[in-house]
Write a structure and sequence with these properties.
Helix content: 40-55%
Distance between the termini: 45 Å
Radius of gyration: 20 Å
CATH superfamily of the largest domain: Queuine tRNA-ribosyltransferase-like
CATH class of the largest domain: Alpha Beta
Structural class: alpha/beta
Strand order of the largest sheet: 4-14-13-12-11-10-6-5
Number of strands: 16
Shape: globular
CATH architecture of the largest domain: Alpha-Beta Barrel
């Protein structure tokens, strides 16, 4: 990434049959090898887990959210307490979303105009104004390594005029974010919008590339379209993002979706799925998803996944974990969330190994076949 010190991104290897690549992203708080998955700590915490547990599970970079931290405890408080790394006890790189996703997820309590968004706080109803300058100012106070431009994320499906308006605002807001950004120790990434419309995606990307962002994200996916629709868009578009910059697909987290996106050329991922599923008794394992409340696990002494070396799988049986959920013990969600984060890190390691070995295409085909069989036979246990 020229002229974006202290950040460096290098492509270390490529898969000959796909657009997948191996990369190294250097940040002020450490080096990340891509493709990588970032656990989500929306309010400055990975739900139920300590930073050390998250690190020991293999994660090296995490995500937090501008909108939620601005409401509580407030960006000024985080800055006064030494910044987000010190505040949440995470020594590695952090990425903060700009609050643009909340324009989509909290649509019922916000009003959008060409200059920004006015929210009615989901906490107490107080008005909160978020515009490009405010989004950048808050993220600079938080102090994350990678910060995101403010964007408009429309729900899908959407009519073309809706997508055109979101693209126009996203381009305008990206330029305002670029002008407001002052901290050289933070990398500001631009976000490409446009829904499933390839022409609008290209139009948005062309405008953002002229602003020379050190990284580019794909927003506005996993917001109502089908997985196959998303996969088609990624195959046609992701490789068009600048080759010498990291490419980030926001909020997409099914393992198969991640693998498809890597094959399309994407480097960074985040999603709440590992911890949200963990809190709801769903464990990711080889061959599917384990539903721990199922009666069949009542006397099951096996670990969640015999191939997993995480703390949960080394020490506890499916029967015990099922008991924790049925007894409403908080340890159950903690242990399964921990396992799920470890699963995702192992999944990314397998993807990186397949790219290095030149076998990613075969890995993808095998995973697609397994997913189709699971869908047809409902092998979820």
């Amino acid at each position: 990434m020229p002229d974006h010190a202290p950040f460096r991104f290098a492509v270390l290897g490529r898969d000959a049959a796909t657009a997948a690549r191996l990369g190294r992203l250097e940040t002020p708080h450490g080096t990340i090898y891509t493709p990588v998955f970032m656990p989500v700590g929306t309010r400055g915490a990975i739900k139920g887990l300590t930073p050390q547990q998250v690190y020991d599970a293999g994660a090296r970079m995490v995500l937090a959210n501008t909108y939620h931290l601005a409401l509580r405890p407030g960006a000024e408080a985080v800055a006064a307490l030494g910044g987000l790394h010190r505040f949440m006890g995470w020594p590695g790189p952090i990425l903060t979303d700009s609050g643009g996703y909340q324009v989509f997820s909290l649509a019922a309590i916000n009003d959008i105009d060409d200059d920004g968004v006015t929210f009615r706080s989901h906490l107490d109803g107080a008005r909160m104004r978020l515009d490009p300058a405010a989004a950048v100012r808050i993220q600079e106070q938080l102090g994350a390594d990678v910060i995101m431009a403010f964007d408009q994320c429309p729900a899908l499906p959407a009519e073309r005029p809706v997508l055109e308006l979101a693209v126009r605002r996203t381009i305008r807001w990206a330029a305002a974010c670029r002008a407001a950004h002052t901290r050289p120790d933070q990398a500001l990434f631009g976000i490409v919008q446009g829904g499933l419309d390839l022409d609008l995606r290209r139009r948005c990307l062309d405008a953002l590339v002229t602003m020379d962002f050190p990284g580019y994200a794909l927003g506005g996916l996993s917001v109502g379209e089908t997985p196959d629709e998303m996969a088609r868009l990624l195959r046609a578009f992701a490789h068009l993002l600048p080759d010498d910059r990291p490419r980030y697909l926001m909020g997409v987290g099914r393992p198969l979706d991640i693998l498809r996106a890597v094959a399309a050329g994407v480097d960074l991922f985040d999603c709440v799925l590992p911890t949200r599923n963990g809190r709801n008794s769903f464990a990711f394992i080889e061959g599917g998803v384990l539903r721990l409340r199922n009666h069949r696990h009542r006397l099951d002494e096996a670990p969640l996944d015999a191939s997993c070396g995480c703390y949960t799988c080394r020490h506890f049986s499916r029967a015990y974990l099922r008991h924790l959920f049925l007894a409403d013990e908080m340890l159950g969600p903690i242990l399964v969330s921990l396992h799920n984060i470890a699963y995702y890190q192992r999944w990314m390691a397998r993807i990186r190994a397949a790219i290095e070995a030149g076998t990613l295409c075969a890995f993808l085909e095998e995973t697609e076949r397994a997913a189709a069989a699971e869908k047809d036979e409902d092998t979820t246990c």
